[in-house]
Design brief:
This protein has helices spanning 8-20, 25-36, 43-54, 74-83, 89-96, 100-109; strands at residues 112-115, 118-121. Among the domains are: 8-55, Arc Repressor Mutant, subunit A, CATH 1.10.10.1450; 74-110, Arc Repressor Mutant, subunit A, CATH 1.10.10.10. The chain has a two-stranded antiparallel ribbon with strand order 1-2. The longest helix is centred in the first third of the chain and has 13 residues, at 8-20. Helices cover 52% and strands 6% of the residues. By secondary structure, it is mostly helical. Residues 8-57 form the Mos1 transposase HTH domain. One of its GO terms (biological process) is double-strand break repair via nonhomologous end joining. Pfam families: HTH_48. This is Mariner Mos1 transposase. GO terms for molecular function: DNA topoisomerase binding; double-stranded DNA binding; histone H3K36 methyltransferase activity; histone H3K4 methyltransferase activity; single-stranded DNA binding; single-stranded DNA endodeoxyribonuclease activity.
C-alpha cells in the first residue's frame, strides 16, 4: 500500500477532475473514500467544492475568512524578546503598537511566562 498522504489542495484537484468528468459530488466522494479512506474529504466538503466549480470558481486555495487579521507576527514578538527578554507587557505592546492584553494572549499561546523579570518558555528544555 502507498504511504502517500494527500493534502487538501491535492484532493480538491481530484474533485475538479471528477467535476470535469461530469461526476456528481456524491460519486466523487465515494471514489475518494475508496482510494484515500480516512484521508478523503467529507461529503459535505465535496458538495461545497462542486458548488464553487459550478459557478466557475476553479481556484483550489482557501478563501480569506472573516475576522480580524493579525496585527503583528509571532516572529516580531520573538525578535523583541530575543533583543531584551526583560521587557514588560507595556513595553512590548508599545513597540508593536497593540494593546498589552494582545501581547499577553500571544505570549501565552507561544508558551512563554515571565520568571524573575525575564520571558522564558513555560517548559525549559
Amino acid at each position: 500500500m502507498s504511504k502517500f498522504v494527500p493534502d487538501k489542495v491535492f484532493l480538491r484537484g481530484v474533485l475538479l477532475h471528477y467535476f470535469n468528468m461530469n461526476k456528481s459530488a456524491a460519486e466523487a466522494h465515494r471514489i475518494l473514500v475508496d482510494v484515500y479512506s480516512e484521508h478523503a474529504l467529507a461529503e459535505q466538503t465535496c458538495r461545497k467544492w462542486f458548488a464553487r466549480f459550478k459557478v466557475g470558481d476553479f481556484d483550489l486555495d482557501d478563501k480569506e475568512r472573516p475576522g480580524q487579521p493579525k496585527k503583528f507576527e509571532d516572529n516580531d514578538l520573538q525578535a523583541l524578546l530575543n533583543e531584551n527578554s526583560c521587557q514588560t507587557l507595556k513595553e512590548l505592546s508599545t513597540s508593536l503598537e497593540v494593546d498589552f492584553s494582545t501581547i499577553g494572549k500571544r505570549l501565552k499561546s507561544l508558551g512563554m511566562i515571565q520568571k524573575e523579570g525575564h520571558w522564558v518558555p513555560y517548559e525549559l528544555k
